[in-house]
């Protein structure tokens, strides 16, 4: 309006400003005015807008603007704007869309964009994320023909994709190839391969790779050490993991929460809670306060080892160190108190938790409910269940399963049935445990017919809710007790036809019935012998072996034919022959 005349730089500044605030409506208005005034559009401005679209998780808007650049705004597109859009699509996790966008631009006749190494790295990453590693390798092979040499990021991305498909040998071959091509590996390259080897448990090759790493002048960093320590813990080599931790400290490589947490978790899982606490104290001494995850792991280990006093001491120590427990730590501690029989203290902790503004989860309530039933306090369990409903606690199938099991064990089948119908009414799908629990409840009260109805209902459910050996044993025991041996045999046949092997409990149910329900009583030898043969015929060697062991324990000698089948299935001819030859050589010598 005055003497000042707008220049192109004013519009570029406006675009930058609106992009930083995510005001895309204003950006479009600026674009429209620039078109009317025949202003010059710069690719740099579009890249700024693309980044803003990526930050706002609007990749399709960026793609649309990219296609509009030439025809609508007369702005030439280069590989810079192409890579910007491709990158934000990948960052949004839309890998299929990234491949589609890349292919459409590369195949268009009127587009003269030559991909560079970044373009290839991005599309290789997309193929690897989609599990199409072979296609990613093809892209690698195409790069030299398009005057683009793979860099260390190209090889790292491909190695990671191959390792995730358990093709570690091919990934290591790429390491040799990249060095031949004059591309020197970095610590990240070795870490990718070490991670793959450690997850597979191949610690010998991982150790050789570390030696190779030193030869190439790549010093191990905290990621390297963390990867190796994790691999050692997975293989149960915890003492070596602790030694590596000490070596890490001596090498002036500072361990972090992940390092200490990995070792502590490994020690706890191995039943070495005391050693885990020593590492925790070592961690604290070096200025790394333990987090809630580590404390929950230590508390869980102490309670599993029945070191209740030490667990309560650790809880006080945690609070004294200023670590505020979250719902996971509260859950572990309350579950441990319930195991110890201190349900009153667990309820006090629950009140403390809610007063601190932390909402109890389904696991916490399930632990308390299970403890109420264990101590024959079903009324308290029902009151807590009502309180959970009033507070709007998000219950799940596991909570219902705990309630059903407790009510059925106390013979409160009517309440259990009401709860079952409530569960179905809320859209929860009962699992195998829930069905088995209710079937057991009906069978205990002599209502085998209702138990069989629930069993048939299970068979028509999805594959996640199918009867297991426990379900079958409940019904087989009920049928045998009422003398329905023919129906029990039919159910056993159904069990085997559906791929469920009878276990020792199944055998004992029939052995008891053969002794008590037949006159004269039978020892069950013929029955078990036939069962073993049928299992071997169906190539179910493990199930047959367990029954053979039971027969020997009960002095029920299998028939010669059964022994012959057992030897054929259990003994590999070459190994047997080698053992025989070894014995003869010893005798002759």
From TrEMBL:
Q: Which domain of life is it from?
A: Eukaryota
The record ties this protein, via Pfam families, to:
PPR, PPR_1, PPR_2
Q: Which ranges does the UniProt record give for the PPR repeats? A: 116-150, 151-185, 186-220, 221-255, 256-290, 291-325, 326-360, 361-395, 396-430, 431-465, 468-502
Query: What keywords does the record list, in alphabetical order?
Result: Repeat
InterPro entries, sorted: PPR_P_subfamily (IPR050872), PPR_rpt (IPR002885), TPR-like_helical_dom_sf (IPR011990)
Q: Which family does it belong to?
A: Belongs to the PPR family. P subfamily.
Name the record gives this protein: Pentatricopeptide repeat-containing protein At4g20090
Query: Which organism does this sequence originate in?
Result: Punica granatum (Pomegranate)
């Amino acid at each position: 309006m005055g003497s000042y005349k707008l220049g192109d730089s004013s519009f570029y500044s406006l675009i930058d400003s609106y992009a930083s605030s995510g005001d895309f409506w204003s950006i479009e208005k600026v674009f429209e005015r620039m078109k009317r005034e025949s202003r010059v559009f710069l690719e740099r401005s579009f890249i700024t807008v693309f980044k803003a679209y990526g930050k706002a998780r609007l990749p399709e808007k960026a793609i649309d603007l990219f296609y509009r650049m030439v025809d609508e705004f007369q702005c030439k597109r280069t590989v810079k704007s192409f890579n910007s859009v491709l990158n934000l699509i990948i960052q949004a996790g839309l890998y299929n869309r990234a491949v589609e966008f890349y292919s459409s631009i590369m195949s268009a006749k009127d587009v003269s964009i030559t991909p560079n190494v970044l373009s290839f790295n991005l599309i290789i990453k997309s193929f690897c994320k989609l599990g199409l590693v072979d296609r990613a390798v093809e892209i690698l092979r195409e790069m030299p023909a398009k005057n683009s040499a793979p860099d260390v990021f190209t090889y790292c991305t491909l190695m990671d994709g191959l390792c995730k498909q358990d093709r570690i040998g091919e990934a290591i071959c790429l390491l040799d190839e990249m060095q031949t091509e004059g591309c020197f590996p970095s610590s990240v390259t070795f870490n990718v391969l070490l991670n793959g080897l450690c997850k597979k448990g191949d610690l010998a090759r991982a150790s050789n790779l570390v030696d190779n790493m030193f030869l190439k002048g790549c010093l191990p960093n905290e990621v390297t050490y963390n990867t190796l320590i994790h691999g050692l813990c997975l293989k149960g080599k915890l003492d070596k993991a602790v030694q590596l931790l000490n070596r890490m400290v001596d090498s002036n490589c500072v361990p972090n929460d992940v390092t200490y947490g990995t070792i502590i978790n490994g020690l706890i899982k191995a039943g070495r809670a005391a050693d885990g606490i020593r590492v925790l104290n070592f961690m604290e001494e070096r200025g790394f306060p333990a987090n809630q995850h580590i404390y929950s792991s230590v508390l869980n280990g102490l309670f599993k080892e029945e070191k209740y006093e030490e667990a309560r001491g650790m809880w006080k120590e945690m609070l004294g160190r200023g670590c505020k427990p979250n719902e996971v730590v509260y859950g572990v501690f309350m579950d441990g108190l319930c195991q110890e029989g201190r349900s009153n203290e667990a309820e006090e902790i629950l009140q403390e938790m809610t007063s601190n503004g932390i909402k109890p989860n389904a696991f916490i309530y399930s632990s308390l409910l299970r403890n109420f039933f264990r101590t024959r306090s079903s009324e308290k369990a029902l009151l807590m269940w009502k309180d959970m409903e009033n507070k709007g606690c998000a219950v799940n199938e596991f909570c219902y399963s705990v309630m059903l099991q407790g009510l059925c064990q106390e013979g409160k089948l009517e309440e259990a049935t009401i709860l079952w119908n409530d569960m179905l009414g809320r859209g929860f799908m009962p699992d195998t445990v829930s069905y088995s629990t209710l079937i057991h409840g009906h069978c205990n009260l002599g209502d085998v017919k209702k138990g069989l109805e629930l069993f048939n209902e299970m068979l028509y459910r999805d594959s996640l809710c199918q009867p297991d050996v426990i379900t079958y044993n409940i019904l087989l025991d009920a049928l045998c007790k009422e003398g329905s041996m023919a129906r029990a045999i039919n159910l056993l046949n159904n069990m085997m036809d559906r791929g469920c092997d009878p276990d020792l409990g199944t055998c004992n149910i029939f052995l008891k019935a053969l002794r008590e329900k037949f006159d004269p009583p039978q020892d069950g030898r013929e029955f078990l012998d036939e069962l073993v043969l049928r299992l071997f015929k169906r190539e179910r060697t493990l199930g047959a072996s367990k029954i053979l062991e039971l027969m020997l324990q009960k002095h029920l000698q299998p028939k010669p034919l059964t022994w012959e089948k057992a030897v054929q299935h259990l003994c590999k001819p070459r190994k047997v022959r080698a053992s025989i030859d070894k014995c003869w050589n010893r005798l002759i010598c």
